[in-house]
Amino acid sequence: MTKNILVVGGAGYIGSYINKLLNQTGYNTIVLDNLSTGDRRTVIKGTFVNGDLNNPEDLKNIFTQYPFDAVMHFAADINVGESISNPAKYYQNNVANTLNLLNTMIDYGVKTFIFSSSAAIFGNSKNRLVNEESPKAPINPYGETKLVVEHILRDYSHAYGLHSSCLRYFNAAGGDPEGEILNYRTNQSNLIPTALRSLLNPKLSLTLFGTDYDTPDGTCVRDYIHLHDLGTAHILSMEKLLNGHPSSHYNLGYGKGFSVLEVIESIERVTGRKVNIVHGERREGDPPQLIADSKKAYKELNWTTQYDDLDTIVRDGWNTMRHQEPCCQK
User: Fold this and answer.
1) Is 32 helix (H, G, I), strand (E, B) or coil?
2) Which residues are designated catalytic?
3) Cβ–Cβ contacts within 10 Å for residue 227, how many?
4) Taking a C-beta distance cutoff of 8 angstroms, is the pair 1, 30 a contact?
5) pLDDT higher than 80, residue 294
6) What are the pLDDT digits (tens) for 67-81?
7) CB 31: neighbour CB atoms within 10 A?
8) Does the N terminus or the C terminus of the chain have fewer Cβ atoms within 10 A?
9) What are the helix (H) ranges across the chain?
């Protein structure tokens, strides 16, 4: 029988594409999203339900209606700067609302959970490559909320048999390679979509937050992973749990770091346009460098990557965003 997967936050940037992949792989999906940041147009497969994790009745209704085999959770707030200025929002949505979801899963006997964690749990790592066992010391509330949930999942696995896979993203980027799912968001805070969006309007600019980091060119270095490769890791980790394997956690990245200036060079190369740069001060909560050691995912999940090229990541992100250009809008 076809398995039912609940995709929470499935109208968002990452969740919508993984929802598509799940359907292409043969799963039946139900997407739960309150559309606070997601867009209904991105849910091109499965069944959409408008609902909120903060509303117990919404959770009760959807779990009563559908017999779920697994849950994937993408409904988190992710802006590091906002988490510092408004931590209450992040602890409420990323922790308290996740608890609502987990407790409902236990009530209805659903024992497989895929969690979108983050490299932010590692903080200012002293290692050039960060592996799963590297010290966890978040330097912002966003990273702290992700680590708190990882601890909750560890305890829930032991106490309730709720098996989980924590997938620690190292800067998800790019877009649907087929161009089917467009990026409608106008408030993404990550570097690549922010820089690309600045090209769509001559009045927009990209703020360069600090050029005095201890890195080769003075700007922050990150490991960027394509949306598609991120998605295949989700499905592989879910299938591993469904086949009876215990809870685990995986770093997801390519093991290659690119500075902010190198990303800007790639964007200008791919688009043929010049990024309007404005220099600013360092942002609180930004570590100088985060690069993944993902050997565990490659080995245990038999994960293979297809899009580990920065220009390809930028190209796919650009192709799913260009519709926002004033000349292209109806």
Assistant:
1) strand
2) 142
3) 25
4) no
5) yes
6) 999 999 999 999 998
7) 29
8) C
9) 13-25, 56-65, 80-85, 87-90, 97-107, 141-160, 191-198, 227-242, 260-271, 295-300, 310-319
